[in-house]
Design goal:
By secondary structure, this protein is an alpha/beta fold. Helices cover 52% and strands 14% of the residues. The protein has two domains: 244 residues, Spore Coat Polysaccharide Biosynthesis Protein SpsA, Chain A; 71 residues. An eight-stranded mixed beta sheet has the order 7-5-6-4-1-2-3-8, sandwiched between helices. Helix 1 links the parallel strand 1 and strand 2.
Length: 323
Amino acid sequence: MALYSVVVPVYNSEKSLEILYRRLAAVFDEQLHEPFELILVDDCSRDESYQVIKRLAAEDPRVKGVQLSVNHGQQKAVLCGFHYVTGDYVVTMDDDLQHPPEQIPVLIDKMAESDEIDVVIGAYESKKHGPIRRFGTWLMDLSSDMIFRKPKNLKLTSFRLMRRYVADNLNRISIAQPTVGPLLLQTTKRIVNVRVHHDERAFGRSGYSFSKLVSAFYRNLVTNSDLPLKMIRDLGICSLVVSFVLIVVYLARYFSHGISIAGWTTTIVLLLFFGGMTLFSIGVLGRYLISIMLEAKKYPSYLIRREDIAQSADRKGEEGDDK
């Protein structure tokens, strides 16, 4: 029998956590008849989410609770959860019940089709996200296509099943601004999709605003790619060519008709354009410098405040021997 580790990043989900746990337990105990562990990583929630996690961990030793000291974001919370997995396979899913636990067997069946499959990602039959979230997903897919040459037909979502070694390798990657989906593309090419249901959000609203989604796209682009620098380089080359053409044109006009005040508009437009591009280029270069600075600091990806994890009998025996 294989042990499955389910990693769930948690943020302000006190109402959905117990429902999620009950449904997961029913799937593994009654349908799959496979052992599982549930790692709940509280990303510094503002509600009573961690109190619910503590209670679930006290009731069932298969539940592991981890609380981060500050809000690090969903991606780092998932990577933190990978640190605690002990299973042969790792499932990642959201805490809002939009990823139905009953669809996990679909992921498992797809993985069982071939030993050459390392990651199975659930592709939604019909997305229940709002337009802003769908736009953010499109942006992230676009950046993955440009940076990592992601296959056009491959969809990246946070509902995944992966082999243990993939999660272990992701844990070895140390970058300041990690994003799990793109990192998977750098870890293995043996990734497939399978169609799954996507439910409506049961409680509350999504924490992804338009600005956060655009920021995530820009961060992913700058952190994992030199594409913006190449775009600036190409724009500079184009600007140089255009400048030479303008020099020839204006010299020809000077020797044939002279220079009139009519060129004032052109001069102003060019100054504004190239001045704006210069400032934009400085901003992009500054973002790269910030990324280099963060990497050089070697700041930990996440900071843990406390853990609620039942110790195994073997671990307790070792501690007793040490005493």
